[in-house]
Amino acid sequence: MSLFDEYKEFRTIWTPEEDELRRRADDGYEQRHAYVEYYMNELPEYYSTGLRMIKERMDEFNKPECLYEGGYSIENRKLVEDIVYSLHRFGASYIEYFQFDFMRKSAEERNTFATSRRRAMAYKVINSPEGTAICENKEESYARFNRYYGRDVRRFDTCNQSSLKGFSNMLAEYGKLIVKPLNEMQGKGVALVTVDQVDACGLMGVLSEGEFLAEPCLENVDELRLIHPASLNTLRVETALFPDRVEFLTPFLRMGCGDSVVDNGGAGGIFANVDINTGVIVTKGHDEYGHRYTLHPDTGVIIPGITIPQWENALSLAAHLAESFPECKMAAWDLALTNDGWKLIEVNHNGHPLMQIADGVGVWPKMIEVMKAW
Fold first, then answer.
1. pTM for this entry
2. Which residues, in sequence order, are CB contacts of 305 under 8 Å at separation 6+?
3. What is the tens place of the pLDDT at every residue in 212-226?
4. What domains can you pick out in the chain, each with its CATH number?
5. Which residues belong to any copy of the Alpha-L-glutamate ligase-related protein ATP-grasp domain (predicted)?
6. Which residues contact 166 (CB under 8 A, 6 or more apart)?
7. Which residue, among 337, 353, 356, 354, has the nearest Cα to 345 in the 3D structure?
8. Torsion angle defined by CA atoms of residues 331, 269, 154 and 226, in that order, rounded to the nearest 10 degrees
9. Handedness of CA 123, 125, 131, 132 (dihedral sign)
10. What is the Cα 117 distance to its own chain's centre?
């Protein structure tokens, strides 16, 4: 049995009626209406809650700079039913419907996207529990890949006075540190802590309660630092491990915005796809809420056409990391280019394939290919 067979068993099992409606719904609006009506009658509270969430997403994207044309209205029955259909048929969350521009895509095109529901199920069979646990705990990740981090990373606990003393000593040694909550993801809780901040507010005035990792600040090479100097701008490379090779999903560069020290899309950062063969950015910058940028909004740097230095070295490092981590057949590696070369920032077992937003090309066929190979 391949991993894809496991995936098919793991995913939601449709009733015969639902399966028939699902297949017919791809053919047009009237059949789609019947498909949505099935959920409206079978799960009325779920459907009602969904309408409120759809309205919230429409409000987020219903801005002139986010729209290709027209606008979104909760009174537009066809649009609402298309969103609900896309959730149940393709696993697309309400925000993904807008991010992936599904309203302008056919059922066949939509079926190529690695949506949130599909990813959630697929990663459970593609990546082992052991590999997932390593990715979800930053300390375990560091222990596994410490030679690729290229910096001093230490664990501390705000509930332990001796540990806080150790943090104070490390801060005095480096002057400023990046702190990361031990078990958070997507840049949540990441902060820059300086000696001056601690002098003014005290340790507990600048630290969140609990366990965290601290590390010295890395700096990009000039070519990448100038895009947004306040943050470390990183390359996301998601690898697909096959029995005889490593392949790459489309890489993308992540760039911070405003005063943020992180570049995560979920923290307000923007991203742009990089051509795998040349290392040149080939799309505009995008954020997760439909805005598109030819120029970086803070620095004015032209995003399309930026060349990522030492490109082959980045791909070589990502391939090597993938081969050394068979517990995760698909892993997303965040890499930073410094004056000392490429450094690993972190590894994710469930990378959000934002490249689908930037170029409108789905990566679900590649995920299926990986599952069928094992």
1. 0.91
2. 280, 281
3. 999 999 999 999 999
4. 3-111 (no CATH), 128-137+219-373 (3.30.470.20), 152-216 (3.30.1490.20)
5. 211-367
6. 154, 156
7. 337
8. 110
9. positive
10. 14
Condensed to tens digits (0 to 9), the pLDDT of residues 123-150 reads 999 999 999 999 999 899 999 999 999 9
- Residue 336 CB contacts under 8 Å (≥ 6 apart), including other chains: 218, 220, 232, 233, 234, 235, 342, 343, 345
DSSP 221: -
The C-alpha atoms of residue 201 and residue 187 are separated, in whole angstroms, by 23
Q: What SS3 state is found at 75? A: coil
Q: How many angstroms separate the CA atoms of 347 and 155, rounded? A: 18
Those residues with Cβ within 8 angstroms of residue 226's Cβ, 6 or more apart along the chain or in another chain: 299, 301
The three-class DSSP label of residue 217 is coil
CB 221 within 8 A of CB 337: yes
| Residue 144 near residue 328, CB atoms below 8 Å | no
